[in-house]
Specification:
Strand order of the largest sheet: 3-2-1-5-4
Order of helices and strands: EEEHEHE
Helix content: 10-25%
Low-confidence stretches: none
Structural class: alpha+beta
Largest sheet: 5 strands, mixed
Number of domains: 1
Number of strands: 5
């Protein structure tokens, strides 16, 4: 399990209860552009997932893999050292 890296944020929108972006931030808390990932469309998160984000305030982000639905792809990427991971803080806005 990777340690918490305070320079990463998963930004979420409170009004729509949806993900916004994954970004690296400066020491002052400003986004480094371009973001690592931005949503293509707004999709509200399920209630239980939103509640978990609200309580935990941190997420494990892992990737990149082409087919994350297939667990063997994740396992293989981890074994070969291709899978990167970070624990990011959730930022509500």
């Amino acid at each position: 399990m990777p340690g918490l890296d305070v320079s990463w944020r998963l930004r979420v929108d409170i009004a729509s209860r949806s993900l916004v972006c994954l970004t690296h931030v400066t020491e002052e808390g400003d986004d480094v552009l371009p973001h690592l990932w931005d949503v293509a469309e707004t999709v509200p998160l399920p209630e239980h997932w939103w509640d978990l984000l609200d309580r935990a305030q941190h997420v494990l982000v892992a990737g990149p893999v082409k087919d994350a639905a297939d667990e063997t792809v994740l396992t293989q990427a981890a074994r070969t050292g291709e899978l990167l991971a970070v624990v990011a803080r959730v930022s509500f806005g």
